[in-house]
Specification:
Elements (H helix, E strand, L loop, with lengths): L30 H12 L1 H4 L3 H7 L4 E4 L7 H8 L7 H22 L15 H23 L2 E2 L16 E2 L1 H18 L12 H14 L3 H13 L23 E5 L20 H5 L20 E4 L1 H6 L6 H5 E3 H7 L17 E3 L21 E5 H14 L5 H16 L12 H16 L5 H7 L3 H5 L15 H7 L8
Antiparallel strand pairs: 1-5, 2-3, 4-8, 6-7
Length: 494
């Protein structure tokens, strides 16, 4: 397998179909081998990018959109709650997450001795393994929040001979393993990495805090999230929209970003997610968008993952996040009448709005343009850490609403670009809790958090209405091929 760590935006450059063809005895013979394989553990992060649009499409934040009712059918089924175990996008998420687990396990299996039985020691090995533990935790977290109980294995890389031998583990056990991996990572990771995109101690702490919140372990969440805040390593940038520009990548608010690049020669239509570009950027662009003026910055897309008017209307007047999240194409054309802008109205489920945070821009792709956008996913931002900490403090055994309000209002003051208390929340108790959850919607809209927040806080049925079936739709179906090949049990209702 050819793996090359060639730039700060490039996790891995190889043909994924050639993975693991090298025999075990030939590999992991040197520090270079270990570090090259460690880079490959990052790669499936890029392939999981459909988790982000699903997190909004399955909620009240966006609709699938597209060319017709049969376009992006997997996402239409998720949007309409008509999904079945035969859903290609969900199957890919399952496969790619377990590919990440497998790669992490391979390195963990040979941490102390390589396949030939030799010990390969080198400076920074423990810190490198901190990254591996974080990545395995992230893959399992993706699986458990998507599918609930999932097969759990950590001692080795599985192969075809293991098919049918694993059973689904209770999600509580999976969470315990995630916590263990993240604590192991926190113990050895540096606070700063020389290469952008690599995992830091703060990223591991922030993810652990999120994992605690998903289990309602509020005291533990408050402690670990406050440690990130108290480090004074991050700051809210004044201009919210700038976070999502190319110049805003890996900025002062970035705790963890999934890196993408447009420089890789590898992309293919037969598997659009396994290149190094961010495929979901193309999805959310305005269909057939063109302009005669060179001043127009936006490139065309496929009108998928369209923000709803419900989300648009949820923003208060003066909140800069509204325009930075919901792109109103009609208003944009009206504001630039001399640019000669033309476009095709979204043919299906048109809302008039597009995802501004990840709207495709001219010059940010190359090669096969639809598949090769360079835009990073801002996976954990400092604002998210502040709001998670506020939630945990409000719900702790001994609530600290004053500090919770402080963190919440830091986010709100940035949103309204004020330094005074004119937009501060003053509530306490349950009212403050609801204000925090509402702020999470507004701050993190179109970043893939909304559906999972609604589920974990028990609000999904109330917010999403009768289409959401309690006891079923909290998780997605186990892919049918896993049922057939591995003999796994299916989630209720599917």
């Amino acid at each position: 397998m050819l793996v090359i760590l060639a730039s700060c935006k490039r996790y891995i450059d190889y043909n994924p179909h050639d993975a693991f063809l090298v025999t075990a005895l030939d590999y992991l013979q040197s520090e270079s081998d270990y570090r090259t394989m460690e880079v490959s553990v990052y790669t499936p992060l890029q392939w999981l990018n459909q988790v982000v649009p699903i997190g909004d499409i399955a909620s009240d934040n966006s609709v699938a959109g597209g060319e017709s009712a049969s376009d992006v059918l997997d996402l239409q089924q998720i949007d309409d709650y008509t999904l079945t175990p035969v859903n290609g996008t969900l199957t890919q998420i399952w496969q790619y997450a377990y590919e990440g687990v497998n790669r992490a396990n391979y390195l963990v299996q040979y941490k102390d001795k390589n396949p030939a039985g030799n010990t390969i020691n080198f400076a920074g090995k423990d810190a490198m393994y901190g990254e591996v533990y974080f990545l395995r935790a992230y893959y399992y977290f993706t699986l458990v929040k998507m599918f609930g109980d999932v097969p759990l294995f950590v001692d080795k890389r599985l192969d075809f001979s293991n098919s049918g031998t694993l059973k689904r583990s209770p999600k509580a056990d999976v969470y315990l393993q995630i916590e263990s991996d993240l604590n192991s990572a926190i113990g050895v990771l540096p606070t700063v990495q020389l290469q952008q995109g690599r995992i830091t101690k703060y990223a591991a702490q922030a993810l652990l805090g999120k994992v605690f919140l998903y289990q309602n372990k509020y005291d533990s969440a408050a402690t670990v999230l406050q440690s990130v805040i108290n480090a004074n390593a991050f700051a809210l940038v004044n201009n919210f929209a700038s976070i999502f520009l190319k110049s805003g990548e890996n900025g002062p608010e970035s705790v963890f970003e999934i890196q993408y690049t447009n420089t890789s020669p590898y992309y293919q239509w037969s598997n659009v997610l396994q290149g190094q570009g961010n495929y979901s950027v193309q999805q959310c662009g305005v269909r057939n968008l063109k302009a005669t003026s060179p001043l127009m910055p936006y490139a065309p897309g496929w009108s998928t993952n369209l923000p709803t008017q419900n989300l648009n209307n949820a923003y208060e007047n003066g909140d800069q996040r509204k325009a930075a999240t919901c792109f109103d194409i009609e208003a944009y054309v009206a504001a630039n009448p001399t640019w000669g802008i033309t476009y095709q109205v979204a043919p299906y489920k048109n809302t008039g709005l597009y995802n501004q945070k990840y709207l495709p821009r001219i010059g940010e792709t190359s090669g096969q343009p639809e598949l090769n956008y360079l835009n990073n996913f801002r996976t954990i931002r400092y604002a998210d850490v502040l709001l998670m900490a506020a939630e945990a403090l409000n719900k702790s055994t001994s609530p600290n609403d004053a500090l919770a309000r402080q963190y919440l209002n830091m986010v709100r003051r940035r949103a309204f670009q004020v330094s005074d208390a004119s937009h501060d929340v003053t509530a306490s108790g349950p009212a403050l809790y609801n204000a925090i959850l509402n702020e999470r919607r507004l701050e993190l809209a179109m970043e893939g958090e909304r559906f999972f927040d609604l589920v974990r806080t028990g609000q999904a049925a109330t917010v999403l209405g009768p289409k959401f079936v309690v006891g079923k739709n909290e998780v997605f179906p186990i892919p049918q091929q896993e049922i057939l090949v591995s003999g796994l049990t299916q989630n209720p209702g599917y």
